[in-house]
Design a protein that fits this description.
Layout lengths: L6 H13 L3 H20 L9 H10 L7 H24 L4 H56 L9
């Protein structure tokens, strides 16, 4: 009983017909391909050298590379340019030292209003739906703790004695 041929099978037969017009040649190509596939599956990555771990640990224990003077100079230049740009933006917006104090005070007052509003909202939610809020907060804390634990534990780590 012949199974219906899929598009891939038809394409394979067409390619084999191009390689060899007779059935005996196509069978030989199929067998050669099968043998090559078996040989490729037997291949394995080579093992690392016996002293691989000692080489790696020697590199880890080596003193870290010092920061060069050129890197320090470029970091200083970048920091100074960023500071100058921020001061320029601050002055160009019409701000002064007095304006900074006023804006800082305004920020504290608005932050206080936000905190008071948040507290009032939380109190209202607690009075109307304390149990669901507790469950949601407990789930949130547990998910966060599990996430931190997964971040902090090394994967596939083996103890070295």
């Amino acid at each position: 009983m012949n199974a219906p041929m899929s598009d891939d099978d038809a394409e394979l037969e067409r390619l084999l017909a191009e390689v060899s017009p007779d059935e005996l040649g196509r069978d030989a190509v199929r067998e050669a391909h099968r043998q090559l596939e078996k040989d490729l599956l037997r291949l394995a990555d080579p093992l690392p050298p016996a002293d691989f771990l000692t080489q790696v640990m020697a590199k880890v224990e080596a003193e870290p590379r010092r920061v060069s003077n050129a890197e320090l100079r470029s970091a200083t230049v970048i920091t100074l340019v960023a500071l100058a740009a921020s001061i320029g933006a601050f002055v160009s917006s019409g701000a002064s030292a007095n304006g900074v104090a006023v804006s800082l005070a305004r920020t504290f007052v608005s932050a206080r209003e936000v905190l008071v509003g948040f507290g009032s909202g939380l109190a209202a939610v607690w009075r109307t739906a304390g149990l669901p809020l507790s469950v949601v907060l407990a789930v949130l804390v547990m998910v966060t703790l599990v996430g931190f634990r997964r971040l902090l534990t090394p994967m596939n780590a083996k103890a070295v004695s």
